[in-house]
Amino acid sequence: MWRRVAAIPIWIVSSVLAQEAEPEGLLANAKARAAENLARIPDFTCGLTVDRSQRAAPKAAWMRADTLRLEVTLIGNQERYAWPGNSAFEDRHLAELVKRGTVGTGSFAVHARNVLVAAGAEFIWSGPAELQNGSKALRYDYEVPAAQSRYRIRNGTEEAVVGFRGAIWLDPENLDLVKLMVHADEIPPALGIVSVTETVEYARVKLSTGVFWMPRASELLTETSHGDASRNMTVYTDCRQYSAESKISFTATDETSVTASVAAAPIQVPSRAILELSLDADIDLAKAAAGEPVLATVAKDLKDAEKILIPEGTRVRGRIVRIDRESQPSPLYIVGLEMHTLEFAEGPRVLRATLEDVSGGPGLIRDVKSMSSMFNGKRERTPALSLLTRGQQRGSGMIHWDAKHPRIKKGFRMKWRTEEASEVNETRP
Length: 429
Prior knowledge:
The chain has helices spanning 2-6, 10-15, 26-38, 94-98, 110-116, and strands at residues 44-55, 63-75, 78-82, 89-90, 122-130, 136-144, 151-155, 158-162, 164-170, 177-184, 193-207, 210-224, 229-241, 250-251, 267-268, 274-279, 283-284, 293-298, 302-304, 307-310, 315-326, 332-344, 347-350, 353-358, 374-375, 381-382, 397-402, 407-408, 413-418, 423-424. Strand 21 and strand 22 form a beta hairpin. The relative contact order is 0.12. The protein is mostly beta strands. The chain folds into two domains: 2-250, outer membrane lipoprotein receptor (LolB), chain A (Clam); 260-424, Beta Barrel (Lipocalin), CATH 2.40.128. It is elongated. The strands form eight sheets. A ten-stranded antiparallel β-sheet has the order 3-2-1-13-12-11-10-9-6-5, with helices on one face. Strands 16, 18, 21, 22, 23, 24, 27 and 29 form an eight-stranded antiparallel β-sheet that branches. It has a two-stranded parallel sheet with strand order 4-14. It is 8% helix and 46% strand.
C-alpha cells in the first residue's frame, strides 16, 4: 500500500494547488496512505494532557475546570486509557475512569480510521486551502450518515449513535493527514446536547522504524440545550513505540480479577483498620493535574494485636483523581486522592482504603456549619472550616483546600480506613 502512495505522479502533487478540479486518484491515494499509517498505531502509546474549561452562556468567558493527565493506546478498534505510570490499560470507557466532567475519545486514532479507512464517508472535493499557521493544504468535506456511523454520544444514562460531518486537510507534498474536523448536531433531544465539534491536528513523528503522522493536539467543544458549553484542549506528548519485548495489556474492570505474580503469603488487613500516611513531597495545586502520581509513607506500624502487618516506612503509591478550583463561597481547591498500592520487598500489593481524617495545614478547610472566618486568642483570623468527610467516596478521599495556600506540604498526615474484609494480596499493575 505504501508503494501505491509513493507512486503518485509528481505532477499531481506539485500542481494540485494551482487548479480547482480534483486530481484523479488523489483521494484514493490519500486513503491508502492513511490506512498504512493507521495500521501501525497499535504499536504506539502517547501521553496526553487535557485542559478542561466551561462557560455558562454562549458569550460568557471560558472558566478553567481542571487538567487531566493520561496515557492512550489502540487495542482492536478501541482507544484504551490509563493513568500515567500504570502498565495496564483499562477495559472500560474513559468516562468510567475519569468519572466526572466532559471527556471524549476518538482523536488518537478512531476518528481518522472511521473517516478515511472504514466505509461510509462520502467525500466532496473542496480544493486548495490555507491553514491558520499559513501552510497550504488540500481540503475534502465529508459526511457519514447515522446508518453508517460509529460515533456514539453519551450524557449520563442516555446515549445514541449519530451521523456526523466535517472536513479533512491533506499535506499537498505527501498526502499526510494534517487536520481533521468532526461535527455532529443531529443529536436526539433526550441527550440534552445540541452539538459536538472536535478538531484534531497531526504532525510527523520520527521513530526508529520510520516517520509517521500522529495526533499533536485536539479541541473538543460540546454545547448543551441549556446554553452552557465545555471545552477540552488536549496536547499529545511522548508518543513512543513499543519494543519487541514490550506487551500491551489491559485490566479487567473489576480489580479483584488481577492475579498475584509473586508467591507471597497473603497480608491480611483487619477490617476498617486505620493506616496512617505521610506525604512524601509537596503537591502544588496550581500546577497539579488529575492522573498525576502521589507518593506517601506509612507513618505508624499497622498491627494486628502484636503482629506488624504493614510496618512504618512502607511506601504507598497513589494518584490525584480530581482537582477542581471553586470560587464560592471563597476560592478553594477540591482535591481527590486515591492511594492504591503498597510497596513491599516481595512486590506491590493492592490497597483499598477511604480517607478518614487528615492533620491540619495552612490551607486545610474543615467541615463546619459556618463558612466564615474566626479569631483565635491572638486576634488572628483563622479559617473555621475542616475536611469535608461527608463527601468522601469509597476508595478515595476529598480534601478542600484554601486557594490562598496552593500547596499541600510534604509530611501532610492522612488517616485512611481500609475496606472491610480487605485482603492485600494482589499485585497492582
